[in-house]
Model the fold of this input.
Amino acid sequence: MKRRFLLVQAFILCLLAQLSAQNIEKTQEQLTNFANLYPQEKLHIHTDRNVYGVGETIWYKLYNVVGWENNLSVLSNIGYVELISPAGEVVAKKVNAIFSGIGVGEIELVDSLVEGSYRMRSYTNWMKNSDPDYFFEKVINIGNVRSDNVMTNTTTITEEGVTYYVVELSNLSETAWPKTAVTYQFTDNGKVVDKGKENLDSKGQIRIKVTEKNKGKDLTLSFNNPEKRPVKKQITTKAYFSENSIQVFAEGGHVIGDELNKIAFKALNPQGKGIKAKVYLLSSAKDTIASIETNELGMGSAPCYIAKDGQYSVLAKFADNSEKSIPFPQITTSGYGISINQSNSSKLFAQVNLTEDKINSEDLYIVAQHLGHVFYIAKQKASNKNVLFTLPKEKLPSGVFTLSVMNKDFNPLLERVVFHLAKERIMPMQTKLDKPTYGKRSKVTSEIEVGNAEDTVKLAAISASVINLTKYGKDLTDDVSMLSSLLLSSNIKGFLEKPAYYFNEDGSVKTTELDNLLMTQAWRKIVWTTLDSLNKEPKYAPEKGINIAGYARKIGRKAPVPNAKIQLVPTHNFMDYIDTMANEEGKFVFNDLVFPDSIKFLISAKDEKGKNNIDITLVPEDNPEVNYERNRPLILNDINTKFRDQLLAGKKFYQQLENKGLMDKVNEIEEIVVTATRPKAAENSANMNGPGNADQVLSADDLSTCSSLEMCLNGRLTGVLFSQGKALNTRGMGEMQIILDGMYVEADMLGSIVPQDVQSVEVLRNVNYTTIYGSNGANGLIIITSKTGRDASRGNSKPKGLLSIQPKGISILREFFKPAYEAESTNQFDIDLRTTIHWEPGIVTDEHGKASFNFYTSDEIGTYRITIEGIDFEGRLIRKLIDFEVK
Done:
């Protein structure tokens, strides 16, 4: 009987072992499928600098890599770069061609931009399959001393128990302010919650009473500056009503009683940035169990013995002499904890700590993985309170990865994110300047050599920027670098302050401080319980070119026109058309197109009988949401004031560019006179500023006596001249864009529109109305809205089976202007006050790993800095700073 029992027991154990093995194999298969189905693309952008003035240009190089190896990506050939305003609106968007993981581009900063902290965000269509938190994003400060010229100083004061927002205005020209009314509005997630008007007092200040409606909300001010130009200021007020805080994190997320636990602390100021603090872990009797001092980013950690029946609290004493006390996290009475030790050069030690009820001699697994890529698996028995795992570092990836502790059925128990960087993943680079110091307008030659002697391939793509630190401060540090973007930020969720801080100049990492960061930060990971559902076809495909998609439907109906024949015809060459066919749902797609920005197309459609009784609509652009909270702590007020010297230096420089014809002059903003008898625009107007928000509006009554629309408009539109059927803006004589019922159409279509079918015509010429249209608004716009109802002869104004479109195309690149101070050169400045001394995005090393570039210093002495970033064709990263003196 006993033998039979033992046989049954053995059979059950074998069966359980077999089931466990099946679970492990199934999970590994799911992970592998996920990793293969969703390879991770990551982006980094190297910009020429981080502070700009309007009218200038952001020059950038885009690096696109795939996987933890950081190999240059061939998945996506299209990358998107956006400039996002302080209010969270995309004010500029570039479509960049990416070839073998490399792209270049620039963003011109139009004069009408509001001063403030802008976000530069970049992603590919493929990256939209994951959270936008993992897109590339950096904050760039942009001032406006070109059309704004107003300095602000924002604060709050409390008088007799009443708190006020106080904004002091001053102007660069130091002239007296005229009597000025300032309108204001407070918004919460884009919704207006409070508004009003205040007059400047004798000190140039306005005061707005703080109420429950507007407390901590985003503030927008609107007024005219002394030059009569309209100005907007955007101010964030949340920090005025916050206080220092302290957060506590247990390693692995659980505090195990009667055990040594590593506890991390994070001290934050009201803006949400780190602040130095002394932190004390106190017992219920107020005895100090442990104490630490945080680093400059507010983080620190310490091993603490925690009794399972103890009562604890945390006291933080901040650098500004304030204090904060909070309860200690709950102590786990049943569960697992983890402790990581990376001090050994070749091994990583992971100790799993168990509560008494979990010591059952069952199998415990530890898995080193990243987004489905499994690098190492180890197994131990849960036979002791402390179970030690040893992982060889040569098996681990470089960058962020996850240690997942699994039970015998391969279900996750806890996770801990870890950072490891193998020295060989940093590309060795030597740089040499031809002189130790330089004079003004001197030629500087920089030689580069990358790779090790044993490398067989030494090809690398590199970019270099040069600035004069005198303009930006000798202690200037870059908060974002290629190492931080591709190794760290692309896998970290939420606000990450100064990610480049964690990397030393030689490419090594600050291990302790980086580990403290990872203990206090959310990260990119797999949700194990949804593995099955994750292994499905991605929603967004990698783009090899630009796609134009839409629907063919019966006129005035939602019913599709199946198998409709669709043509895409560029208006600059009607013979260069392409065909496709709609499917059964009426959907059509033109795939993998490559065309420059500002190209216009006509889409025509006919059904199977050759009839064109078809409405054509485009699939709306699927833009990812902006996570305004991600980098909110970096959003600053009073940019013109904080960066006054740099902005004024930049203003002097672009006056030189204007004189040379290399830059457009300031857009003069005409005074707009609004009268009570102003005609009303059609309610269904496509005007992106809102119906009637225009420089001039003509109503249906104004158009009732004309035989043609061009005749009605000629001579009646201020600042518009008609020539050969086209509307020209008298400011520059550029051809104005015509928009008919929301469609971009050619200018010569005006002759085919019956005036009696038109409800309103709106003219947009000034930048406060045209900016929202980007490049399409460069010469102004005329917006025509047709009448609705049976009385409108829409056949003449909106052709059947035809749609005019102007999709966003590949951004056209300009060349960075490089002066040369040689005797025969004409590329010179009379006074050289360059803000960016040099920008060189296209450096490629030869087969020996060598390359060089040269540039000239300006008329200003000081410490110049060369920032070099790049990547070789094995995914090794390059980052180097070189300072030299100009005397």
Q: What stands out?
A: The two ends are 98 Å apart (CA to CA). The chain is about 10% helix and 40% strand. Residues 4-17, 666-677, 790-797 have pLDDT under 50 and may be disordered. The CA atoms of residues 725 and 748 lie 6 Å apart.
